[in-house]
Amino acid sequence: xxxxxxxxxxxxxxxxxxxxxxxxxxxxxxxxxxxxxxxxxxxxxxxxxxxxxxxxxxxxxxxxxxxxxxxxxxxxxxxxxxxxxxxxxxxxxxxxxxxxxxxxxxxxxxxxxxxxxxxxxxxxxxx
Length: 127
What we know:
Elements: H1 5-23, H2 27-31, E1 41-43, E2 50-52, H3 54-65, E3 73-74, E4 78-83, E5 86-95, E6 100-110, E7 113-122
């Protein structure tokens, strides 16, 4: 179900914060966007970039920072859907390094703040 304009704006703001914090390699700002729940999930494009819970997610993010030093992110497409207090986001876009990164995230609104509950990014198959 297509998100209303307010939900879409709020979810896009969280995804933009995630992109900026990740590009700056700001671990604390990145982690602050994830829910503090033990079952929060991150799955990245590399085999070792995955985690369940903030401790594992923190380690996964730290591993992914090194090869991306100096990277910048450009988001060129958002699709935001929602149902009640849950919203999901799909991004198809590219980084300035010309890597096409795809991101799917599930967010949950708690009071007036959205938290990432599940985040999965991948690179499309070449060829």
